[in-house]
């Protein structure tokens, strides 16, 4: 289970989110950004910009009360304040990677994190160093045992750079948090067709179906019908990604609870 948290500025904490024992639950802090507070890029030096109520103490406490909880930091996201963020090729890619490793290492140690998620969402033309830099960053963090889990979050118009990343560095990428809601498919059959397409691009095993609470794409219990259809069609679902806990608080975390019930049921059959 994967769930983004902390992107909207609503003062969130981990405690109210329903977490079941029996499957790993990854909270994804949103976001750590290679920018200063004015939105200027810092050559790979990342800083945390998730809501400040998600503290290092909060992370330690939720992990202590639920040993199946892991907490990650997602890199970049759509924007910082009014500044739309984009990938940029650094002048010196190796320097960018080493800045990324050292700044993330300090954030990861401070916040007791287990991994990183990659969520760059805008790719200007002719920027070709994304796979090299991000692949190098993940590899180095794993090599130094700073992280144990790494995920990537492509969406419909950003699949190309992520396919290049996954083709080159798939060994160190654990799950694909593909943002199915950006395909704006509203019915289970359409969801299945989209899942098949993305499974061809990224492989079915690491690909997680995803849901945006009060958002785009399939909504309501049709999502769970889509999950059943995926299973009936032979896909072994290895998780579900939800965006985001910030919205889940408004309906008692219904989609989190139902998704975990679905996954637990699926793993016991
Ligand atoms: C961010 O960086 C830019 C350019 O490097 C600089 O002009 C600006 O003052 C910095 N902002 C802050 C808040 O440090
Ligand atoms: C990419 O860069 C090349 C060489 O600098 C240039 O000829 C080409 O027009 C650029 N392509 C785009 C889509 O910007
Ligand atoms: C880290 O990289 C070195 C050199 O490539 C390699 O020998 C070592 O096994 C790697 N360690 C881990 C934990 O991946
Ligand atoms: C659990 O799985 C069984 C068999 O696939 C199904 O009939 C049942 O509705 C499932 N229950 C839940 C809570 O998903």
UniProtKB/TrEMBL annotation:
It holds the Pfam family Glyco_hydro_18. Residues 1-269 form the GH18 domain. PROSITE patterns: GH18_1 (PS01095), GH18_2 (PS51910). Transmembrane segments: none annotated. Keywords: Glycosidase, Hydrolase. The keyword Hydrolase applies. One of its GO terms (molecular function) is hydrolase activity, hydrolyzing O-glycosyl compounds. InterPro entries: Chitinase-like (IPR000677), GH (IPR017853), Glyco_hydro18_cat (IPR001223), Glyco_hydro_18_chit_AS (IPR001579). It comes from the Eukaryota. GO terms for biological process: carbohydrate metabolic process. Belongs to the glycosyl hydrolase 18 family. This is GH18 domain-containing protein. It comes from Kingdonia uniflora.
């Amino acid at each position: 289970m994967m769930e983004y948290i902390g992107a909207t500025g609503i003062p969130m904490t981990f405690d109210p989110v329903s977490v079941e024992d029996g499957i790993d639950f990854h909270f994804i802090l949103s976001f750590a950004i290679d920018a200063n507070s004015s939105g200027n890029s810092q050559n790979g030096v990342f800083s945390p910009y998730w809501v400040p109520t998600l503290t290092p103490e909060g992370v330690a406490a939720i992990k202590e009360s639920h040993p199946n909880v892991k907490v990650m930091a997602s890199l970049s996201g759509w924007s910082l304040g009014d500044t739309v963020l984009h990938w940029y090729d650094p002048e010196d890619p190796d320097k960018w990677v080493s800045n990324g490793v050292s700044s993330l290492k300090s954030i990861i140690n401070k916040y007791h994190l287990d991994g990183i998620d990659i969520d760059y969402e805008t790719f200007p033309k002719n920027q070709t160093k994304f796979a090299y830099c991000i692949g190098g960053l993940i590899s180095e963090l794993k090599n130094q045992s700073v992280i144990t889990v790494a995920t990537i979050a492509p969406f419909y118009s950003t699949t190309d750079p992520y396919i290049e990343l996954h083709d080159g560095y798939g060994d160190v990428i654990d799950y694909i948090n593909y943002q199915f809601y950006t395909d704006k498919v509203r019915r289970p059959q359409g969801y299945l067709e989209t899942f098949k397409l993305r499974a061809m691009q990224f492989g079915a095993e690491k690909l997680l179906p995803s849901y945006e609470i009060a958002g785009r794409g399939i909504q309501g219990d049709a999502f769970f019908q889509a999950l059943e259809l995926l299973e009936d069609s032979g896909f072994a679902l290895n998780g579900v990604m939800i965006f985001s806990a910030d919205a889940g608080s408004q309906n008692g975390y219904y989609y989190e609870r139902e998704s975990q019930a679905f996954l637990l049921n699926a793993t016991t059959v």
